[in-house]
Specification:
Elements lengths: L4 E5 L4 E7 L6 E6 L4 H16 L8 E5 L5 H18 L2 E5 L1 H13 L5 E8 L2 E10 L2 E11 L1 H7 L9 E2 L1 H5 L1 H8 L12 H8 L24 H10 L12
Parallel strand pairs: 1-4, 4-5, 6-9
Antiparallel strand pairs: 1-2, 2-3, 6-7, 7-8
Helix pairs in contact: 1-2, 3-7
Length: about 250
Amino acid sequence: MKGRWLAIDTATDIASVAVGKPPDTEAGVFVQGARRHAAEIIVLIDHALEQAGLRPQDLEGIVVGDGPGSFTGLRIGWAAAKGLAQPAGLSLATVPSLMAAAATLARQLGLPLPVAACYDALRGQVYAAVYVFRPDAVETRLAPTVTTVRELARIAAPADRPRAVVGDGAMRYRDAVLEWSEAEPLPLESLLPNATALLSLVARAGATRQLDDPLAAEPLYGRPAEAQAKWEARHGRPLPDPSRPAG
């Protein structure tokens, strides 16, 4: 990757945008408050590009946080990424938002040790994953899943017990996290915004998801939105996907 990339992450309460030549960041901005994501995301993108002295057509590609996380937040980030990528003919790549948070934490540790990210998924559950970061690659030790922290500790291999855990889910279920990792959990606000980590990961082996049709692709939400779950429970069948042909 020789050109500059734009990174967008809106999976959590913190929306962030960064610009740079991977793995480095040249400009970055963020805003906190999920209710502000829709109103602020284009403003954040404009500010980041302006700080870097770039226009969308100057970019090589866009990397967007892949989830899991806030259903509405993810849709906002992905819509912005697609809206910029299509007219400018830019490449589109995705990196799990959990991986981005864990990567910043791993950089603080400075050693290739297991680290975890846990986002609050409500209903007593978390979106969680465990990774090991190496200079040229990422190892996914436990793929993103939605479960309780105690169940997470049960299904994760003993060798993958994280040395540190970050995220609002980790903070909410602090006692269970301490029992699992024996380390005090860290809030997302204590680390660099996720968009900066997305830029550092987009060229690293094992970090991105292959998109066969980038413009039709969707983020990995983790589970259906509440409205979809209620519709399917009421009708006893999956919600029709308008993007797919009938029959």
